[in-house]
Specification:
single chain, alpha+beta, Aminopeptidase, eight-stranded mixed β-sheet, globular, binds coenzyme A
Length: 172
């Protein structure tokens, strides 16, 4: 997962302040709280992944999986403005998809504000296709577009490895 300048790694509780700061810097509303991040960091059904630039968190993504479902959900993704344009957004997306695959998911779904042109462009470039809309989805009443991407098995997803990863997953 290492690329020049930063590494994408799972978040720990030590990242909570940085994650909350990132939310405040990037989102005007519908922010994830510190308590939510605290739960997500420890939840077996979630991955909170951060782009670590050594002395700061440059971006983060949250992916949710569910037992008995092959559909994962990209719950949040953000790149801090000073670190934009360095490929961190695409790297976080790819890392989130890798997590979903290793947990047995074969597609990723997400919601995005209809006016979030940059994110929509990124999702299109990454192979996501729109398939629906959620009316009055956000705090301010804005609608969400729903996107979906099939997650083809990658080279690291040989059946034995996938089964091993799932068999280690907690059951609740
Ligand atoms: C949505 C978001 C995560 C998308 O990320 P992004 O802006 O596309 O990601 P980056 O800042 O890494 O920019 C990508 C660009 O970096 C450049 N880049 C530089 N080095 C690169 C590399 N090694 N690999 C890929 N791209 C690289 C490219 O120009 C690329 O754009 P392109 O693929 O169109 O050519 C980001 O815009 C964001 O945080 N937005 C605010 C929060 C938000 O709206 N979240 C989504 C809610 S649904």
């Amino acid at each position: 997962m290492t690329v020049p300048d930063y590494v994408v790694r799972p978040a720990t509780r030590a990242d909570l302040d940085a994650l909350v700061g990132l939310e405040a810097a990037v989102f005007a509303g519908d922010r994830l709280s510190r308590r939510s991040f605290g739960r997500l960091v420890e939840a077996p059904s979630a991955a909170v992944l951060v782009a670590d630039v050594g002395n700061a968190v440059a971006g983060a993504t949250v992916v949710l999986v569910r037992r008995n479902s092959r559909t994962a959900r990209l719950y949040s993704i953000a790149v801090a403005p000073p670190f934009a344009g360095r490929g961190i957004g695409p790297a976080l997306l790819a890392a989130g998809e890798d997590f979903a695959r290793t947990r047995g998911a074969d597609r990723m779904r997400l919601e995005v504000r209809t006016d979030n042109d940059r994110a929509i462009a990124r999702y299109h470039k990454a192979g996501y296709l729109p398939f629906g809309r959620r009316v009055d989805y956000y705090e301010d009443g804005a609608d969400a577009l729903r996107f979906e991407k099939p997650l083809a098995a990658g080279p690291d997803d040989a059946p034995a490895k996938s089964v091993a990863a799932r068999s280690h997953a907690p059951t609740s």
